[in-house]
């Protein structure tokens, strides 16, 4: 529990403008959305009055004209009193006082097995020679639905934005994602909150609704079909370039969406059909699907109403990847996103985010195995989501067998997020996850869109470097041989060869030894 | 009136034929009970299904008038946004789920989870309904002439639920209100329009008790 009481606010009175000239500056109090600061109206002095409400977003430090504020995690107690850390104690107090369980945004704060304990194996003399990143070509393109629909999605780089809804995100953030996708030639996703009117043409690279002026190369808009069916109609389904059937998500598999009343404004209400101020809690499952046959029928009519033009994606939470991916293949998926437990969220019960699901690196091997067993690996595209931070993580996911990677939390960070884990409150001081006009005004969608485009450009170059130094001219050639696990846990979880041991662990060799062995 | 024989045809063939045929004239379809998603996403036209309909008949209907002469299987009128779907017989599980608008009329009985997450449609069931009917309704009218099962109108957020019979148990966040004159006039109009016999005096109205946050 990383929100309550986890941060220390310190103000250097030597340089604080208000401390030197009381009443002359109240910037920190004005920008803080959590009322940490209060101006004494009699003396003009600024005081830290609610230190426990600081979520560590650091907006005050960023706006402070004299750089007088430091926000530091309460580290010493965290270390010395484990497991009864300050935040654990505060969590118990909160529950005792309110009778409510905790909700939290962004994603897990816990330590989980991740890509960091995997290393990339470069080419030298005993393997295919490395390729020259600066002077030779590298194929990074990913095509979804090339044999199943009229208009396949052709990603210029092997990335997508993870689904994040309007409501969870501000309109400005949604537009920025569309602009960034257009700039980079990748796909953005409506998420489950319906359509922002500008998303389709912005994602396709146009600056106007009439599509007369094309500014960017153009990307794609994936239309999400979810359990709450917010804002869903035939026109909605036909407004994008693909349809994604959401089954679950990494941060809260087995639960539906949570959009608290504080973020259900008139605009959000209009799109979702939920009363203003009322919580929009999506169901955990489709009320109109009970069997795999139902899911097949759902895919069939989704293809029908979109006139067989666009590919069908599925999005899975981290549960039983082999069986779940197999079910998606049987249901007719063109692409399957699998979201590990590090995946982000606008709001989730804390215990679910912290303790439910399996890590992304554990999702990929069985998902790949299912695709191979059905003979559709590299045909039905696998997209790895959940805690992917850069081109290095993405490369590792792709070498493990994914075709592309998705950025959700990283996209928010690229827009300016400082990871304060308080998205659910609706007070995001950077205007990314808030619906409040004064917060939204801080996010320029064009500038943020350009930052997103830059981020993808940089990650694309990173993937290109790693692909070519591994001796490949295409990401389609990547394999688990390009990776090694750096510890026993990671080798056991992923089936990758262990560094120094140079083969998979015996438990994996017994299952075929190809690094993708279990069901 | 054109008639399409759906026997041995798949969804794509039948819906394509329908799309080509619904320009201004009613179209009949026969032997279509094996198809799921029949007449999906139509914006106009009049379609008459002779006999039974399969799952998801009229899913995403956006303006067409669809009549099923006998029974409909699961999830009829799913996610409809406009238009009218009339089922002369019974409807199985989940008729009228996720609807945003339009009208669904079932002349017989309807199954569990009818009208779940209704967001604005008028859904009229002339007979009895199963359990969990009207769950998480957000807008629109749900009219049940007969009886309802367990957990009726559970988690009601907004909209009106009218019932002429009894329920086995009622769900959370509900309260019972007397019918206003406006309600009576509305119900009378519904019944006259769709030829349903009902005793208005027996009807009760259920609305949301609160729109407070529910997460905890």
Describe the structure.
The complex is a heterodimer of chains A (519) and B (216). In chain A, 32% of the residues lie in helices and 15% in strands. Chain A is globular, with a radius of gyration of 24 Å. With 519 residues, chain A is α/β, with parallel strands linked by helices. Chain A has 2 domains: 7-100, Alpha-Beta Plaits, CATH 3.30.70.20; 115-477, TIM Barrel, CATH 3.20.20.70. In chain A, strand 11, helix 8 and strand 12 (242-246) form a beta-alpha-beta unit. Chain A has 19 helices and 20 strands. The mean pLDDT of chain A is 93. Chain A has helices at 17-20, 27-31, 59-63, 75-80, 86-98, 171-184, 199-203, 234-237, 266-272, 292-305, 321-331, 350-355, 360-373, 391-399, 409-415, 437-440, 445-469, 488-494, 506-509, and strands spanning 7-11, 37-39, 46-48, 69-73, 103-106, 118-120, 142-144, 153-155, 159-161, 187-189, 220-225, 242-246, 258-259, 280-281, 312-316, 335-339, 345-349, 381-385, 404-407, 483-485. In chain A, the strands form 7 sheets. In chain A, strands 9-19-18-16-15-12-11-10 form an 8-stranded parallel beta sheet. Chain A has a two-stranded antiparallel sheet with strand order 1-4. The longest helix of chain B has 14 residues, at 181-194. Chain B has one domain (33-208): 3 Solenoid (Pectate Lyase C-like). Chain B starts with a strand and ends in an 8-residue tail after the last strand. In chain B, strands 1-2-3-4-5-6-7-8-9-11-10 form an 11-stranded mixed beta sheet, with helices on both faces. Chain B contains 2 helices and 11 strands; from the N terminus they run E-H-E-E-E-E-E-E-E-E-E-H-E. By secondary structure, chain B is α/β, with parallel strands linked by helices. The mean pLDDT of chain B is 95. Chain B has helices at residues 11-21, 181-194, and strands at 2-5, 27-30, 46-50, 62-68, 82-87, 103-106, 119-125, 139-144, 160-163, 174-177, 204-208. The chains are: A alpha/beta (519), B alpha/beta (216).
